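quick one before i forget lol
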Amino acid sequence: MSTVTEAIATPGALKRLADEGVSIWLDDLSRKRITSGSLAELVASGSAVGVTTNPSIFQAAIGSGEGYEEQLSDLAARGVTVDEAVRMMTTADVRDAADILRDVYDASGGRDGRVSIEVDPRLAHDTEATVAEAKQLAWLVDRPNVMVKIPATRAGLPAITEVIGLGISVNVTLIFSLERYREVMAAYLAGLEKARERGIDLATIHSVASFFVSRVDSEIDKRLTALGTDEALALKGRAALANARLAYEAYEEVFGSADGSARPDGRWPALAGAGANKQRPLWASTGVKDPAYKDTLYVDELVAPDTVNTMPEATLNAVADHGEITGDTVTGGYPQARADLAAVQRLGISYDEVVQQLEDEGVAKFEAAWQELLDAVATSLKSKGADAR
């Protein structure tokens, strides 16, 4: 595993990003990062104020076996199931990371210092099971600064409402479309209303909506390249930023703008008056996939107040080294963003088809990573069980 020395040593661009109202979260977690002190150093330096995980991250961490040998041996000795073993390991890492970030959580009033853990991706299309899993994860981690990740599938929307209504903070993941994002915000408001009816203190509930960025360019760029015309090629690398910027416009329509220029949706003021927190947009998938693009593209060009940018380590270090943070790069770009997406559509590339494909692929990729993790842990448990005998 690489280190975060660069980010710690060069906080200038990261500090400017934070000064613009962007919370920097690290999109990575492993047992080694915790035990080596790497995460604690990163947090102490102020370079990152939160952590996100997903099935692919845990597959890479636990699949390597590094740092998990003793716990795997104990789990094998107890004869636990593979599913239980995976949850014991992942929740242990999230709990330890939450403890490292607890001071940030307290100092920010719960806004940051968060660690996210995702429901089993195999439950993405099962509302009832997603709610049950979210409750279980919150109970297992047992830290106030945990966020449970729920995918923004059709079945995920009512699950978001119910889980928020129980007072559990939620990171909504795998959002690609503007329509689905609006549905996510509506689900959050409905959840807050449920929580208020149940007498839960709304100030204790936080949520972020993870809007995926780079994957949009990857798919649309592929289709633009296939068209091959000058007009098509000129649009490469523009759709993802346009999509994200219009998502922020939708956020302002619901929650109001930081400068007061946009008034909030009619449901929000009453909830805000009861102590509710805005559901902040979180830019996810911010590592560039195309080496032709600047490696800080999806950070430099998505600076806006009240947002979160969760970065893989390579992107975090790149921003620290040569990020160009020049102020708000989102709110002035709505007309151009609409024009860019319209231009893509005019070329025969269906926005609705692309975002649905990306959602389906996102769920499938996480399911595959989770299955790989289960298979690796099953092999380890069998081996260690045999060794014990």
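fyi The first strand starts at residue 22 and ends at 26.
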